[in-house]
Structure formats: C-alpha cells, structure tokens
Amino acid sequence: MSEKSRSFSATGTFECSPVLGSGTQNVTYKLHMPAPSRNEGFKALENDQYALAARVFGDLLVKHPDDAGLRLGLALSLLEGRHPCRCDVRTLEQVKAHLMHAQRLAPRSPNPRLALLLVRDAELFRWSAQRRRPTKKDLRLLNQVKRGAAAMLIKHIPARESVLWQELARVAGDGRSPGRAASASAQRLHKPPRRRSCS
C-alpha cells in the first residue's frame, strides 16, 4: 500500500445471474482512499472539529513522530477549545507531554513554547490565583510569533487571565509584535482576585 493512500476492505454477498451461475458468492471490495494530510488536520482544528483533527494528527504521527507541528496540532485538538483547567488530569498531562515533545523537536519555533506557557499560566492561576509576568525570553517569543499562529493559540487555549494570552491577542488583532506594550505588561504587578476561577 502506498504511503499516499489507505486501503479499506469490505466483504459482502450478491446473487449471481443465470449467466454467471446461480447461488450466492462472497465478494471482497477494496477501496483506496487518500491518506489524511496535515492541512486536513489544521482545517478540522480551525473548524472546531476536534475529534476529527485528533484522529488525523494521530494517524500522521504514526508515520512522522518527529513532526513538531503535528504534535502541536494534536495537543490543541485534545484541549477541544476548553480552558486547560477544565480538562481532566489525564488529558492535560497528554497535552503538556505533546507540547514539551514539540518544543524539543523545534526549539527555534515559538509556537510550542508559547502554547505550553499558556497551559502552565492557566494552572498557576487556577491553583494560586496568581498571574505570571512574562519574562524577557517570553517577550522575545512574542516578537517572533506570526499573526495566524497567535490567533490559533488564543482560540484553542482560552486562558484569558494569562498576561501572555492577552499579549498574543494583541498580536492576533493587529498583526504587530507587542514591543513596548508587552514590556509594560511585564512590569505591572497584578493583584490576585479574591475568587479563583477557571475561565
């Protein structure tokens, strides 16, 4: 079977005509369908079809386990657009494992690192009601991330209480790097709210 296609077999029966001979015979049908592509996975993710996106990314990772983009896509699919602290522990651990793996595979890409920081910021706020101030390294990542990637991250990791999420929303909104605005946010002290909230 070619890497570009998948074969599906189905067994059925049919009644033969007098010309072919009487009786019932078993027939196996083979259908060749194209293998899913990464574009299909990200399109499904964009359309909030999380189960489909997870299947596509999972299938592709079997053949391409060292693809950081696929691991990022799978991690976002597993979150299903939920705030990280609304996921069960097992799912959240899987998400973080895929993001850490993606970060190791693509250390120069800002996307896996930013996604992992958003998840960790959400956990920090959930359990200690504190907002982490972006570090200088975080600000460098913000200056590297592209507008489309920023929009994808804030949509699928809705950790709105994170200062980093707010700066990514700024990038997604106007397409410009945060620059001084992000530096100012990093310097502000945020008082923890009286009531802890997941969303």
Provide structural commentary.
This protein is mainly α and 199 residues long. The protein has one domain (38-187): Serine Threonine Protein Phosphatase 5, Tetratricopeptide repeat. Helix content is 55%, strand content 11%. The protein has nine helices and two strands. Strands 1-2 form a two-stranded antiparallel sheet. Helix 4 (89-105) packs antiparallel against helix 5 (110-128). The N and C termini lie far apart (47 Å). Residues 174-187 have a biased composition (Low complexity). Residues 174-199 are annotated as: Disordered. Residues 188-199 have a biased composition (Basic residues).
Q: Provide the spatial order of strands within the biggest beta sheet.
A: 1-2
Q: Which CATH architecture is right?
A: Alpha Horseshoe
Rounded mean pLDDT score: 80
N- to C-terminal distance: 47 Å
Secondary-structure content class:
mainly alpha
- Sheet bearing the most strands, described? 2 strands, antiparallel
CATH topology: Serine Threonine Protein Phosphatase 5, Tetratricopeptide repeat
**Morphology call:** globular
Q: Output the number of helix runs.
A: 9
H/E series: EEHHHHHHHHH
The count of DSSP E runs of length 2 or more, i.e. the number of strands, is 2
Report low-confidence residues grouped into runs of 5 or more: 1-10, 179-197
CATH class: Mainly Alpha
Gyration radius (Cα, Å) is: 23 Å
Q: Percent helix among the residues?
A: 55-70%
**Strand fraction:** 5-15%
Instruction: Give the number of domains.
Output: 1
